[in-house]
Amino acid sequence: MRIGIIGCGQLARMLALAGWPLGLKFSFLAEPGDTGDCVRGLGELVPMPDGFEAMAITELAEKVYTSLEKPDVITVEKESVPVDLLEALKKYCAVYPDPKAVRICQNRGCEKEFIEGVGAAMAPKIVVNTAAELKLAIEQLGFPVIVKTCEDGYDGLNQWKMDTAGDLTEFLESRDSIVESVVEKRVNFSREISLILVRAADGRTASYPATQNWHEGGILRASLAPAQDIDEGLAKQIQDLTERVLGNIDYVGVLAIECFVVDGKLLVNELAPRVHNSGHWTQQGAATSQFENHLRAIAGLPLGSTEVHGFAGMVNLLGVEVTAQTALKPNAFFHTYNKSVRPNRKVGHINIVHNDAEAMKKQLDATIAAIYSD
Ligand SMILES: Nc1ncnc2c1ncn2[C@@H]1O[C@H](COP(=O)(O)OP(=O)(O)O)[C@@H](O)[C@H]1O
Ligand SMILES: [Mg+2]
């Protein structure tokens, strides 16, 4: 069976690495600017056809499907993919997750509407399109806020924290106009957690235990799983949120939900219609990794157990040069993405597993300290 992946970054790499033992073959669609370094040697790397911008979507879909070597299933490894192309590709093979789910997650405004629609809680927010609307929204919400563009935002990109009227003035003076954005009340969370869920084509679902995450400048730096000290109330909210989301979206594959915990209350931050950085620990920390389970789901194979092996931690390698030689320990595992190092760029991660929660956290903290001395 051949899997076509739209995108060729590290998530595509780790999907392919998980899929080869299952006998799956891969083709990757590289968009302009993608080097393909992450997936080199793991399958066919196919560039977007020449002149694709001017092509009718039906013609483009046929060209893409054929050049991807006629995959049996097409999936995505990032959010910013041409959804119309995904829709058109459904004529040729299964496309999972459904492009409609990808479309919802591509625009923060639509995503938040969906979250609201399923009855899940989130930070107060207002969608704005003009400077006047932005000012009014901040008046209503009150500082501190965070402004995020509705599209093209990831890893803290295209978002601005504002604490004072001066910050707002400075922001507005630095640009001619503003694009559609979500203004959100900045919440004082006690922690961030994420949920990694998977649903198979036959409707069966599985979920990994909640992961606790730490971000720096909007970029994930480290995760720990299972998140500790989840009391009964929070566990109930996690269960309820999982059911509400999966019950309201026609979805096949892995889906991630990022959340804040504020005064014991679970608030949804955002959804990701794909395997997620906060699920990388599952490569060593769970019976089946999120990558394998995504493939099992989209390929119509039985889902694998999400049972965890003790306690797991993950440290992202962000713009730092770390080698296997220094990273590896009997219980520390190195994953490099074959990328050149640039400031803050995700170039790899280290997974740690331990049968003792405290010892794992200690090792996780020591690993973070060794890599990032700030
Ligand atoms: N409303 C908020 N209140 C407090 N912190 C926030 C809020 N929104 C985002 N953040 C912080 O910024 C990080 C990145 O924001 P997020 O909305 O997840 O954007 P991205 O799509 O770039 O991941 C979050 O993980 C969190 O640490
Ligand atoms: Mg996020």
UniProtKB/TrEMBL annotation:
InterPro entries with a match to the protein in the record: ATP-grasp, ATP-grasp_carboxylate-amine, ATP_grasp_subdomain_1, PreATP-grasp_dom_sf, PurK, PurK_C, PurT/PurK_preATP-grasp, Rudment_hybrid_motif
EC number: 6.3.4.18
GO biological process terms, semicolon-separated: 'de novo' IMP biosynthetic process
Location of the ATP-grasp domain: 112-299
Pathway terms, separated by semicolons: Purine metabolism; IMP biosynthesis via de novo pathway; 5-amino-1-(5-phospho-D-ribosyl)imidazole-4-carboxylate from 5-amino-1-(5-phospho-D-ribosyl)imidazole (N5-CAIR route): step 1/2
Superkingdom of the source species: Bacteria
Annotated Gene3D superfamilies: 3.40.50.20, ATP-grasp fold, A domain (3.30.1490.20), ATP-grasp fold, B domain (3.30.470.20)
Record: residues binding ATP: 108, 148, 184-187, 192, 215, 269-270
The keyword ATP-binding appears for this protein: yes
A Pfam family matched in the record: PurK_C
UniProt keyword terms in alphabetical order: ATP-binding, Ligase, Nucleotide-binding, Purine biosynthesis
Matches recorded under PANTHER family: PHOSPHORIBOSYLAMINOIMIDAZOLE CARBOXYLASE (PTHR11609:SF5), PURINE BIOSYNTHESIS PROTEIN 6/7, PUR6/7 (PTHR11609)
Assembly and binders: Homodimer.
Function: Catalyzes the ATP-dependent conversion of 5-aminoimidazole ribonucleotide (AIR) and HCO(3)- to N5-carboxyaminoimidazole ribonucleotide (N5-CAIR). Catalyzes the ATP-dependent conversion of 5-aminoimidazole ribonucleotide (AIR) and HCO(3)(-) to N5-carboxyaminoimidazole ribonucleotide (N5-CAIR).
NCBIfam families the UniProt entry points to: PRK06019.1-5, purK
Protein name (record): N5-carboxyaminoimidazole ribonucleotide synthase
Chain's gene name: purK
